[in-house]
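Researcher: I've been going back and forth with a colleague about how Enoyl-CoA hydratase family protein might be arranged in three dimensions. Neither of us has a model we trust, so I'd like an independent prediction. The organism is Streptomyces griseoaurantiacus, in case that matters for your notes. Sequence below.
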Amino acid sequence: MTTAVPVTRSRDRGITTLTLDSPANRNALSAGLVAALDTALAECGADPGVRAVVLTHTGTTFSAGADLREPPPPEALTALLRRIVELPRPVIARVTGHVRAGGLGLLGACDIAAAATTADFAFTEVRVGVAPAVVSLPLLPRADPRALALHCLTGDRFDAAEAVRTGLLTLAGEDVDTVLAPVLDGLRRASPQGLAETKRLLTARVRKAFDRDAEALTALTARLFSSPQAREGMTAFLERRDPVWTELA
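Model: Here is an independent structure prediction for Enoyl-CoA hydratase family protein. You can compare it with whatever you and your colleague have in mind.
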């Protein structure tokens, strides 16, 4: 039996597009998808013909967050986000649908993130008994801390305009490809050395956060995911019911 490849790739004039293509679980970050994306990114970083990488998706969801049925080891997700941040090529997120939980970590790790105005976003971790621990590594140095507090503590859904305002997105527009066209043209005109060294300058604070906090936050993620509250929250989510703690709401 042939197993579907969760990440596909194509190339156009120096830009490699990696497409999350796991529609059965709404591109949730399963162990398999995380491993496949990490491998694809590593190959892009080693290929001198790749000027930049676009990370996008099939279907109506960029990523539904961690796959609750086949979650990746926390250290694998940490390594994937670090890979994006440290890749010697710019990585651009292209979003046309929903982004939840760990999917926002992918956006935060990318150098540029653009979305259609129809996209929406939510940090849903608190609603299943965990916290955006590992995904906070690329987000805290880049996003508005007050906005992060609001959205991470409530798990509310917000739109692309709010995501731009808070620093989770770079650009938004009715047609995301129209928005991205001049960005990709600019990257094609830049020298590989210039891009790599400029990215190193721009990601210094994010890389410092990984060096300082990655080990502790990876351990926190593992502890939370194995906790009784997380088991109740994830079971409730999979069973399409409210977790027990909402009885006081």
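Researcher: What would you highlight for our discussion?
Model: I'd start with this: The beta strands are 7-12, 15-20, 52-57, 61-63, 91-95, 98-100, 112-116, 120-122, 157-159, 171-173. After that, consider the following. The mean pLDDT is 96.
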